[in-house]
Specification:
Number of helices: 10
Shape: elongated
Distance between the termini: 67 Å
Helix content: over 70%
Low-confidence stretches: none
Largest sheet: none
Order of helices and strands: HHHHHHHHHH
Length: 206
């Protein structure tokens, strides 16, 4: 019985986290109360407080279990970059953008913790963790640009450092995803991704 109770408690916790993610993505963190989350989960307010002290505690727990599954994508494209760095960069940015736009949970994570992060004061307590995660993305992107220089795809004399180029690539992903999400599908997502990436890659110093 105790084991079953523990399993049920974890199921309840996961239900609350998933419900919170869904509501936060739709309304924003500030506009979503703990009462809203409990009600949407079909639970009492007290049941929610048994798992989380307050909204800040819930948000921190949600972030720890809501990372984008980018590791395999980065590993694949870093390996591909050994042969064609800029080609792998384009594939990485395309698959990253499509992951966010195609997968409902990934889109919710992206909206809550990255796309709208600066608008949510409740994220202040975990801002260092979010920053560290994004810095890791930038470091991996910078490695691809470094390979591109070695392969002669980018001039060694370019004043743009790998770090600045990596930031521009991340900005492209933010731009594509925000455009598709907030324009409500006026342009087919895959077409928009393809067009933006073609322009971006063509504009890199060659």
């Amino acid at each position: 019985m105790p084991r079953r109770t523990k399993e049920e408690a974890e199921q309840t916790r996961q239900l609350l986290l998933q419900t919170a993610l869904t509501l936060f993505a739709k309304r924003g963190i500030t506009q979503t109360s703990l009462k809203d989350i409990a009600a949407a989960s079909g639970l009492t307010h007290g049941a929610l407080y048994w798992h989380f002290k307050n909204r800040t505690d819930l948000v921190a727990a949600l972030y720890q279990e809501s990372r984008l599954p980018l590791d395999e994508l980065f590993i694949d494209q870093l390996q591909a970059a050994r042969q064609d760095a800029l080609g792998s960069l384009g594939e990485l940015l395309k698959r990253w953008s499509w992951l966010v736009l195609e997968d409902q949970r990934c889109e919710a994570i992206w909206r809550v913790f990255h796309l709208n992060a600066k608008q949510e004061p409740e994220l202040a307590a975990i801002s260092d963790h979010i920053y560290a995660e994004q810095q890791e993305w930038l470091e991996r992107l910078a490695k691809i640009y470094k390979k591109a220089r070695k392969q002669g795809q980018l001039p060694e004399s370019s004043k743009l450092k790998q770090g600045a180029l990596a930031e521009s690539a991340l900005a492209v992903v933010f731009g594509i995803t925000a455009s598709v999400i907030y324009t409500e599908g006026r342009t087919p997502p895959k077409q928009q991704i393809k067009t933006v990436l073609k322009v971006y890659l063509a504009g890199l110093p060659g």
